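C-alpha cells incoming
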C-alpha cells in the first residue's frame, strides 16, 4: 500500500497539462462526492464544512480544472498519486484538497498519457485533537495550508 513513507511527493507546483487533464476526467465524480461528503458530515459534524456553510451545492462545486492551483505528484509501483489544491471560487480563501490515483488502463503499460486512467481517491477531511481533548474538524482549507499526503 502506498503511504507517505513509501511515496516521495514532488514539491508543490502549478499543475501541468497532464494534471489538468486528470482533473478534467474526474471532475464530475469529484463534484458529486464533495456534495455527498458535505451532506453526510452536516448530519453529524457540520464543522467540517462550516467555512462554506452559506454556499449552495452549486456554488460549492462551481470550480473547474482551472481552479486547481497547486499539485504534488508521487510515483509508486501501482501508479501515480496526484494531490491537488482546488480553489472554491464562490468563497474567499476556501480550498479543498483532493487525491487522485492514476494507473495504466487495462491491457496497456500506461507509458503514455492516453493509456492512463485517473480516479478520484478521496477528498481530504481533517480531525485534530487538541491538547485539551477538544476536536477540530475541517474539509475546507486556506491558501496557506500545506498540501501534504493524506488518506482521507
Amino acid at each position: 500500500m502506498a503511504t507517505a513513507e513509501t511515496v516521495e511527493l514532488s514539491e508543490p507546483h502549478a499543475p501541468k497539462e497532464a494534471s489538468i487533464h486528470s482533473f478534467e476526467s474526474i471532475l464530475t465524480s469529484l463534484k458529486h462526492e464533495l456534495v455527498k461528503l458535505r451532506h453526510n458530515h452536516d448530519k453529524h459534524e457540520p464543522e467540517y464544512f462550516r467555512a462554506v456553510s452559506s454556499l449552495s451545492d452549486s456554488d460549492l462545486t462551481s470550480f473547474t480544472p482551472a481552479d486547481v492551483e497547486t499539485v504534488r505528484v508521487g510515483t509508486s509501483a501501482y501508479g501515480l498519486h496526484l494531490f491537488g489544491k482546488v480553489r472554491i471560487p464562490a468563497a474567499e480563501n476556501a480550498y479543498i484538497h483532493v487525491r487522485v490515483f492514476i494507473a495504466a488502463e487495462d491491457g496497456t503499460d500506461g507509458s503514455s498519457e492516453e493509456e492512463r486512467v485517473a480516479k478520484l481517491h478521496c477528498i481530504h477531511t481533517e480531525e485534530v485533537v487538541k491538547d485539551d481533548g477538544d476536536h477540530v474538524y475541517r474539509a475546507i482549507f486556506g491558501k496557506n495550508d500545506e498540501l501534504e499526503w493524506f488518506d482521507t
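note: The chain has a mean pLDDT of 94.
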